[in-house]
Design goal:
The complex is a heterodimer of chains A (about 350) and B (about 230). Chain A is an alpha/beta fold. Chain A has 13 helices and 15 strands. In chain A, the strands form 3 sheets. Chain A has a 6-stranded mixed beta sheet with strand order 7-8-9-3-10-11, sandwiched between helices. Chain A has a 5-stranded antiparallel beta sheet with strand order 2-1-4-5-6, with helices on one face. In chain A, strands 13-14-12-15 form a 4-stranded antiparallel beta sheet, sandwiched between helices. In chain A, a hairpin with a 6-residue loop joins strand 5 and strand 6. Chain A is elongated, with a radius of gyration of 25 Å. Chain B has 12 helices and no strands. Chain B starts with a helix and ends with a helix. The chains are: A alpha/beta (about 350), B mainly alpha (about 230). Adenosine-5'-triphosphate (ATP) binds next to strand 2 and helix 1 of chain A. Chain B: This is ABC transmembrane type-1 domain-containing protein. Chain B: It is a multi-pass membrane protein. Chain B: Keywords: Cell membrane, Membrane, Transmembrane, Transmembrane helix, Transport. Chain B: It is found in: Cell membrane.
Chain lengths: ~350, ~230
């Protein structure tokens, strides 16, 4: 495996306050590969922003090491107290290669769209003519050429974020950090911004670190996911792993908000057929990933085990080209038949979770 | 017409137009004092205000010692009533200007009197510059001076003009007291030649002229602040 473009190791960030110390990030290690769209999800206060601000040293960690693109930005061993920190001037140059966008856009209010983007090129070696051309190209890239002379207050949220993206891209960064960049936007605009990030990832090979509390956003564009809680990463993996086999309760919660399955369970649960569930029936949720979907499983249940399957709700997502499905189903048959059927489903890598009934199984 | 004026405003006429105690002299003295002390005191106040913001714990270059110094100097000078400051720093004034009385000599206490006031105003104005914008600038590799000039002063300029207007107006107020050290000006006209000599017409006109000056500053300040704001 190639060297990660971002390597955070044993990062701890604590804030000393008058009476107590808040540990916002607790001994976290994350390695992000070139070309990744790395999603970091977690509720408010989990420490996501603090963690990513460590990448460009907007936040200096209390201990741990930060290596970006092979350069050690920071290294502090709490035990030996040895400390290395990149020189300020070098850091400034490096930061130009790490774009960052924010929830509240953080544009310069007193500058036009063009001037906002040009501000990032203040130290560029380009001639002023080349700079102007570059700004124009960037604005074309984010589809805002017609707004070049507007001030931020004259733009919509989505347009402001696109200006921020153009600004973040001005120095041809290799990394783009997005800290809740779509949290202040409506769903449609959110999708436009996410699509833009995805295309930048694909076209320019940009590595994207995507912080969000919306699993939906992660699902759209990420290939890897980490879930944060109380300053720690409690679960991580490829998007598929996380969606298919979430281990932690919190991860499940996030996934359910993205798939609407929690709402479906509630709605379906109120239907008479579930509410007055038959004696010989069990209400289950089937989850599966990938190739399993191709097999006529439901038909087999009846043919091989004499168990009927009544599908009440189904949801199939395609994540990174792989289908991931959830079905809410009532299985009906003798207890033994149902037990056999569930075993057969498990053999086929279908996860079966009982929601109601089937106490005798 | 002129006899009517002479009859009703005898003291105003008595003061004359030019000459040591004339109206034009008083007007130019006030403008002279206001202008130069606004320049010196304003620059000093801007530096201290910027220093307070930059070195504060949430600033771009936090520094406890420097912040403490900026903070204490400003607080100290603010605590001294201006009329006492006038007398108190006379030796220092003499050192700089060569004399401790007169219009030019008054520039020293006026500058020192107005700078702490302005420093606090600047501090408040610049603290209002969104920390997120500063952070975004840092994230694209902006240098210290990029942030001072390109973010703080540029983003805060409309607010800076607003507080400068307030400061200028209170500075015009201070120049009235400078009469105490022989600086002349409209304030001195109102008190020394008007009030003290029961020359009400002189007091009224001097007050009116100060009022016009204040109003002009206010109007220009408001227009500029509005023009420069794109929030
Ligand atoms: N400068 C600071 N001083 C003190 N505490 C801080 C500071 N910055 C962050 N914290 C604390 O660290 C914890 C993590 O904050 P952080 O902003 O990283 O969370 P987050 O996951 O980004 O949350 P959100 O989704 O709301 O943005 C919080 O408890 C917060 O109060
Ligand atoms: Mg955050």
């Amino acid at each position: 495996m190639s060297e990660p473009i971002i390597a955070l190791d044993n990062i701890t960030v604590s804030f000393k306050q008058k009476k107590r110390t808040i540990t916002a990030v607790n001994n976290v290690s994350v390695h992000i590969e070139r070309g990744d769209v790395y999603g970091i999800v977690g509720y408010s206060g989990a420490g996501k922003s603090t963690l990513v601000r460590v990448i460009n040293l907007l936040q200096e960690p209390t201990s741990g090491s930060v290596v970006v693109n092979g350069t050690t930005f920071f290294k502090h061993d709490a035990n030996t107290n040895d400390k290395i920190r990149i020189k300020n001037n070098d850091l400034r140059l490096r930061r130009q290669k790490i774009g960052m966008i924010f929830q509240h856009f953080n544009l310069l209010n007193e500058r036009t769209v063009t001037e906002n983007v040009a501000f990032a090129l203040e130290h560029s070696k380009l001639s002023s003519k080349e700079k102007a051309q570059k700004v124009a190209d960037l604005l074309a890239l984010v589809d805002l050429s017609d707004r070049a002379d507007n001030y931020p207050s004259q733009l919509s949220g989505g347009q402001k974020q696109r200006v921020a993206i153009a600004r973040a891209l001005a120095n041809d960064p290799e990394i783009l950090i997005s800290d809740e960049a779509t949290s202040a936007l409506d769903p449609k605009t959110t999708n436009q911004i996410l699509a833009l990030l995805k295309s930048l990832n694909q076209k320019l090979g940009l590595t994207v670190v995507l912080i969000t509390h919306e699993m939906q956003a992660v699902k759209e564009i990420a290939n890897k996911v980490a879930v944060m809680q109380d300053g720690e990463i409690i679960e991580r993996g490829s998007l598929l792993e996380i969606f298919a086999q979430p281990k932690e309760q919190l991860t499940r919660e996030f996934i359910e908000t993205a798939t609407n399955i929690d709402k479906a369970i509630e709605t379906v649960g109120h239907q008479p057929i579930v509410h007055n569930l038959a004696e010989n029936a069990v209400f289950v949720r089937l989850s599966y990933v990938g190739k399993t979907t191709d097999q006529p499983l439901i038909t087999r249940l009846f043919r091989d085990f004499n168990v009927t399957a009544n599908i009440l709700y189904g949801n199939i997502e395609v994540l990174q080209g792989t289908p991931v499905g959830s079905l809410l189903v009532i299985l009906q048959g003798t207890p033994q038949a149902i037990t056999n059927a569930i075993a057969a489903l498990n053999d086929n890598e279908v996860d079966v979770e009982k929601i109601k009934g089937g106490q005798s199984l | 017409m002129s006899t009517w004026f002479e009859q009703n405003f005898p003291n105003v006429v008595y003061q004359g137009w030019s000459g040591d105690t004339g109206w034009w002299t008083a007007i130019t003295q006030t403008i002279y004092m206001t202008f130069w002390s606004a320049l010196f005191g304003g620059l000093l106040g801007l530096i201290f205000g910027l220093g307070l913001v930059i070195t504060s714990p949430s600033g771009i270059a936090p520094n406890k010692t420097l912040f403490w110094i900026f903070d204490k100097v400003v607080s100290l000078f603010r605590a001294i009533p201006f009329i006492i400051l006038l007398a108190f720093i006379a030796p220092f004034t003499k050192l700089i200007v060569g004399t401790q009385i007169g219009t030019t000599a008054s520039l020293v206490p006026l500058s020192l009197g107005v700078f702490p006031f302005y420093a606090r105003q600047v501090q408040v104005a610049l603290t209002e510059v969104n920390a997120g914008i500063v952070e975004a600038a840092q994230s694209i590799g902006a240098s210290f001076w990029d942030i001072v000039f390109g973010v703080y002063l540029r983003e805060g300029r409309s607010e800076l003009i607003r507080v400068s207007t307030v400061t200028l107006i209170s500075l015009i107020g201070l120049t009235a007291m400078a009469g105490a050290i022989g600086a002349g000006g409209l304030g001195n006209m109102a008190i020394a030649y008007g009030y003290n000599r029961y020359a009400t017409d002189t007091t009224v006109l001097a007050t009116l002229l100060v009022l016009i000056l204040v109003l002009a500053v206010q109007i220009i300040g408001d227009v500029l602040a509005r023009r420069l704001s794109h929030k």
